[in-house]
Amino acid sequence: VQLQASGGGLVQPGGSLRLSCAASGSIFSINVMAWYRQAPGKGPEWVSAINSGDGSTNYPDSVKGRFTISRDNAENTMYLQMNSLKSEDSAVYYCTMDVLGATQDLFKRYWGQGTLVTVSS
Question: Of 97, 93, 106, whose CA–CA distance to 75 is shortest?
């Protein structure tokens, strides 16, 4: 199983970006999908999560109301719509999915390679 994240880039404060994360490989089921980020010199920060089944979502206060996580189960893909971006949102964004492989008995968390988001004028 591999996760491919994309959509990062340079955006001005107040702007928007949409990140994507696609899973490929021998997948039987996906449970929780999530985004994390890590800014230079800082530890990783959880950004959002979505339950692949019922679509319920969670966000930390730092991004609530500005970021929206969504998923396309048919495509094993999730998205992160980021609006009203601030300089403090600049970081490498990583996607994760808890995946049950077709030949596995337990869910395993996979990570994407990261995509850089820079918010600057």
Answer: 97
